[in-house]
Amino acid sequence: MMNFEGIDAGMGDYSPTLHGSLDPGMEPSMDPRINPNMLQGVELDPEGLSVEVPDSVHLLEGMFSELHSVAAEVGVPVTATHFDLQEEMLWMGNHRGHASSFFGPTMGRYSSFQVHPSDDIRQIHSLDTGVLFLSKTNLKCCTRGGLVMFHYPMDEGADMHSLLMTENNTLIMGGLHNYIVEFDLNSVQETQKVTVEMPGVAIMRQSNRFFFCGHTSGKVTLRDMRTFKTEHEFDAFSGTLSDFDVHGNLLAACGFSSRGMNGLACDRFLMVYDLRMMRAVTPLQVHVDPLFLRFIPTYTSRLAIISQSGQCQFCEPTGLANVEDVFHVNTGGQLLMSFDVSSSKQALAFGDSGGGVHLWSDAPEVSYNDYSRETEFALPCMVDSLPQLDWNHDLLPLSLIPMPLTSAEPLLSDWPASMVTPSPRRAPAVDPEILRTIKTVPYKIKEVEQDYDNYNQVPESPLGREEEPHLYMVPKKYRKVTIKYSKLGLEDFDFKHYNRTLFAGLEPHIPNAYCNCMIQVLYFLEPIRCLVQNHLCQKEFCLACELGFLFHMLDLSRGDPCQASNFLRAFRTIPEASALGLILADSDEQTGKARLGRLIQSWNRFILTQLHQETQEQEGPQAYRGASSSALGSSGESVIGRLFGCEVENSSLCRCGKETVRSSLTLLFTMHYPEHNPNDKAVKEHEFVEILKKSICLEQSTQAWCENCEKYQPTVQTRNIRCLPDVLVINCEVNSAKEADFWRVQAEYAFNKAKQKEAAEPPKPKEPEPLPTEWCHDGEDTCGGEGFTFNTRAEDLRHVWIPLTMKMSISKTQGLEISNWPEAEELSTAEEEEGASLFDLVVTVPHLLDARTGGNLVAHIKVGETYHQRKEGVTHQQWYLFNDFLIEPVDKTEAAQFNVNWKVPAILYYAKRNYHSKYDLRIKNPIEASVLLTEASLARKQRKSHATFIPLMVSEMPQAGELVGLDAEFVTLNQEEAELRSDGTKSTIKPCQMSVARITCVRGQGANEGVPFIDDYISTQEQVVDYLTQYSGIKPGDLDAKISSKHLTTLKSTYLKLRFLIDTGVRFAGHGLQKDFRVINLLVLKDQVVDTVYLFHMPRKRMISLRFLAWYFLDLSIQGETHDSIEDARTALQLYRRYLELSRSGGTDEVRKALKGLYEKGRKMDWKVPEADPGDGQGSPKSGGGFPSAMAL
């Protein structure tokens, strides 16, 4: 009998017939009225055998006794049991991958379905929307009715055993391998993979501080919930661990001990550890062979210890086990395989090796959860309650009575295929009179070749633009993406729908954002990423500096999009960019008049040349660098030249015999295609490597000046290269229909070759294919499924002409040699010694022709291992599609496919295999503390007597965690573009373009708390359409260096100050900082931002202005006529101090009470601050101390 002397002495008086004795021979059967011998040789119904407790059984409160038993699937072991955490349901999973659920204490079958075709179910966990099932190599989530929500296969060789739910809808999975996986249920993907010691993790539990990993080696490790680092380790058993559990400050474990030559033996001593002192306390000896154990903390922290034979003992972890507290689960001789305890601690569930599930409870009316929601059941059958129909009624719908679908007779609605095949509508015959009088007019085709990269060349739907939306040539993921703006701007736009990776996209609404795809290309070239982040110079508009700032944001982002506004602002000021026609007018971008294919190739040439010049310039002493300036920026050698540069030899031979040779450095090559002979009916077949070699080693005839002849003469110009670049950049120059036709024909030749090669191979059995369709359906991402079905490797090569890998070498006799090479193979040692190199395709940039949107540019990029390691903690390479803020993984063949009807090649990048090894890929932050020191103002009229801030002293340099008050003011460069709908609502097409005009930072602690140390007005060269003086306090002339009396600086100078503060780790306090940082173009981690907008905000309520918060909590009247950023930054600091006071005085309850009063007062006042004096009864209900209103500066 169980001993509950510490609870109630009378609770031990109960009928001994409720439990089996310890003698196996005296075990009662599953039902006392059934003879066990009668069950031998009898096949039970696999749909479930429910055995009810006799009516005479009376369960005593507090005593665990068997309440119900069910045979789920006879003979198949139950490997997992789980009480649903949301509903009154018990789940089980068996050895054959089948799952079943039982409702309530009567265990009526609710659902039953197959989870895995062969593997056993090892753990079950219920969620709010579904149930997770973990098998050896799969994680599957199903609804409670059995519909699959997602199915995630593990890595090859995985042997998963346990999972653990953590915060933020993530879970941790472990098994018998050398890693544990963190998995995000929102994005259904692994977020990181952490290495652990072999033989891996078999059991996981968690507490408030740690999560615990049990190993088959007998050890239990304690790991940090955030970093996964091992904090402590208990060596519990010398053999292996069978189970453990954690409650409060106690950890109890059971397992096997090594007995030398006799192998392992079950240890009847439970190891108990005190988690406060991290040491073992007195082991607990029990009277059963423990296999499972759980804490059941109802009245006391008692333990339930279960043996495999069905013996169950309850005892205190720090007391003595009593042999009278041993009970027996009636398994009919089967072994227990699984065990679980309900969240209410009122019910226990056991699964045995014979397919039985046993429910034990300490109360007749058992509840699995404290607060369970109502379970949805299937609708009852309505056949017996069908209405009577009047057959004589003409308008009565006969469908009121459902008809069962039978396969014996065909239905009248099953029309034959010949009658339902669509046929084209024939045009009516032309009137003979019209044909008789019609005149024939000669039609002459224009000889002027149209530009192929104009979007008007795209074939449209035969019925017009809007009449057939399901016929659409461009797949959805390639189409131009736009941001839908609402009243909240971008806050409620779901960027995660377009990007489920951890890489950052770029927003497209900024002028000249057509180059977003090429910015991504440069970012994913590791040497360039490191180069520009190590670079810093004095030039106000330096593209290398701005790229470094942008790449730093892309490094920090975890999937949220960034914007290249500062980079594009600097780009618009470069005279060479304007001269090359790279600066687009807004009308050209919106109407699609820009020839994007040519434009991006010119931009590619410009940016490489510009970065080469900016990074090779010698840099003298500057305010941004100290003595430890970066070697990359000051060595005089450009990494761009080393990476892309190729020394070429240009030879000009006049017909007089005079030859002129010049050497130069080229950063990219342009494709030149052979002229088509009009006498040839068909275009000749060429390989890509052949055309590339002729384009690099170009030979052409032209008129040039000959010094020998002293006049212009026909000369033959020849180009040869002396070395191979590390990254080969190719501009495809497919700018007309002639070049496009050449690509199309060559791709067809390559495709036919692949089909012939496949046909020559032994045929493989394959399933019949559906009929191919010519168009992708609207909404489809790729031409698969309902479009082409790629069952063979040859089909994958449709529209592919370029190779994925090339072998290139330069020899003294043969010159440049290029050939195709299998992607998976490496060069031999002899070939490497001869100077041969392999070049892999890493980037393709196509121009997409789309008549509906005006066309756009995307990039396919092969993202390397280092980027995946930084973002996801895994090491692999993967191709991705980058379409502004849409990012999707794609197959490598898709990156090389160019259907020139809508996808025209523009730029190709081939990288030498393993070229990273020769570059220094370390990043040293070049921004130093000197940026915060005193600097001269650009304004000519500014005097020190007008100073509004005191710069930081060397002794005041901020440290990590210190507080800084921040506020920024803005002006408008372009007005918002919106349209008025027919229902009167406004729809924002393009938001107004803002520019930062003033940035203020005030000290957040110390003797000078509240005193500004930055108050910069930002000079701008762009035209301001609205100074927003009422809201910003900025007046015309404040930003003009000729007449301004303010402390005027460049945006770059102030940007560097903020970057230094962010990199130092300070915390910014302000109001509406999210918008401020967005316009400044900074990415700040959430734990470094204290935003009073969200501190004083209740869910699903309106945001509250800084002016109203200051009046309510601080009794301050601010922002009277205009805004002042110093005043706003100080006020935000004081509000944060006030919030901390509320939190310290009463915790979250006090804060909630204050917010409730705030919203009530706001509704009464209509959220307007009264203008009357405080003495008239309309003053603030709160008052608080503040900073002095004036400073002696």
TrEMBL record:
<keyword id="KW-0539">Nucleus</keyword>
<dbReference type="InterPro" id="IPR036397">
    <property type="entry name" value="RNaseH_sf"/>
</dbReference>
<protein>
    <recommendedName>
        <fullName>PAN2-PAN3 deadenylation complex catalytic subunit PAN2</fullName>
        <ecNumber>3.1.13.4</ecNumber>
    </recommendedName>
</protein>
<dbReference type="InterPro" id="IPR030843">
    <property type="entry name" value="PAN2"/>
</dbReference>
<dbReference type="GO" id="GO:0010606">
    <property type="term" value="P:positive regulation of cytoplasmic mRNA processing body assembly"/>
</dbReference>
<keyword id="KW-0540">Nuclease</keyword>
<dbReference type="GO" id="GO:0006397">
    <property type="term" value="P:mRNA processing"/>
</dbReference>
<feature type="binding site">
    <location>
        <position position="967"/>
    </location>
    <ligand>
        <name>a divalent metal cation</name>
    </ligand>
</feature>
<dbReference type="InterPro" id="IPR015943">
    <property type="entry name" value="WD40/YVTN_repeat-like_dom_sf"/>
</dbReference>
<dbReference type="InterPro" id="IPR028889">
    <property type="entry name" value="USP"/>
</dbReference>
<dbReference type="Pfam" id="PF00929">
    <property type="entry name" value="RNase_T"/>
</dbReference>
<feature type="region of interest" description="Disordered">
    <location>
        <begin position="1168"/>
        <end position="1193"/>
    </location>
</feature>
<dbReference type="GO" id="GO:0003676">
    <property type="term" value="F:nucleic acid binding"/>
</dbReference>
<dbReference type="Pfam" id="PF20770">
    <property type="entry name" value="PAN2_N"/>
</dbReference>
<feature type="domain" description="USP">
    <location>
        <begin position="504"/>
        <end position="913"/>
    </location>
</feature>
<dbReference type="GO" id="GO:0000289">
    <property type="term" value="P:nuclear-transcribed mRNA poly(A) tail shortening"/>
</dbReference>
<dbReference type="Pfam" id="PF13423">
    <property type="entry name" value="UCH_1"/>
</dbReference>
<dbReference type="GO" id="GO:0046872">
    <property type="term" value="F:metal ion binding"/>
</dbReference>
<dbReference type="InterPro" id="IPR038765">
    <property type="entry name" value="Papain-like_cys_pep_sf"/>
</dbReference>
<dbReference type="InterPro" id="IPR013520">
    <property type="entry name" value="Ribonucl_H"/>
</dbReference>
<dbReference type="GO" id="GO:0005634">
    <property type="term" value="C:nucleus"/>
</dbReference>
<feature type="region of interest" description="Disordered">
    <location>
        <begin position="754"/>
        <end position="773"/>
    </location>
</feature>
<feature type="compositionally biased region" description="Basic and acidic residues">
    <location>
        <begin position="755"/>
        <end position="773"/>
    </location>
</feature>
<keyword id="KW-0853">WD repeat</keyword>
<feature type="binding site">
    <location>
        <position position="1128"/>
    </location>
    <ligand>
        <name>a divalent metal cation</name>
    </ligand>
</feature>
<keyword id="KW-0507">mRNA processing</keyword>
<dbReference type="InterPro" id="IPR050785">
    <property type="entry name" value="PAN2-PAN3_catalytic_subunit"/>
</dbReference>
<keyword id="KW-0479">Metal-binding</keyword>
<dbReference type="InterPro" id="IPR028881">
    <property type="entry name" value="PAN2_UCH_dom"/>
</dbReference>
<keyword id="KW-0963">Cytoplasm</keyword>
<feature type="binding site">
    <location>
        <position position="1076"/>
    </location>
    <ligand>
        <name>a divalent metal cation</name>
    </ligand>
</feature>
<keyword id="KW-0378">Hydrolase</keyword>
<dbReference type="GO" id="GO:0004535">
    <property type="term" value="F:poly(A)-specific ribonuclease activity"/>
</dbReference>
<feature type="compositionally biased region" description="Gly residues">
    <location>
        <begin position="1176"/>
        <end position="1187"/>
    </location>
</feature>
<feature type="binding site">
    <location>
        <position position="969"/>
    </location>
    <ligand>
        <name>a divalent metal cation</name>
    </ligand>
</feature>
<dbReference type="InterPro" id="IPR012337">
    <property type="entry name" value="RNaseH-like_sf"/>
</dbReference>
<dbReference type="GO" id="GO:0031251">
    <property type="term" value="C:PAN complex"/>
</dbReference>
<keyword id="KW-0269">Exonuclease</keyword>
<dbReference type="InterPro" id="IPR036322">
    <property type="entry name" value="WD40_repeat_dom_sf"/>
</dbReference>
<comment type="subunit">
    <text>Forms a heterotrimer with an asymmetric homodimer of the regulatory subunit PAN3 to form the poly(A)-nuclease (PAN) deadenylation complex. Interacts with PAN3 isoform 1/Pan3L and isoform 3/Pan3S. Interacts with ZFP36.</text>
</comment>
<dbReference type="InterPro" id="IPR048841">
    <property type="entry name" value="PAN2_N"/>
</dbReference>
<dbReference type="GO" id="GO:0000932">
    <property type="term" value="C:P-body"/>
</dbReference>
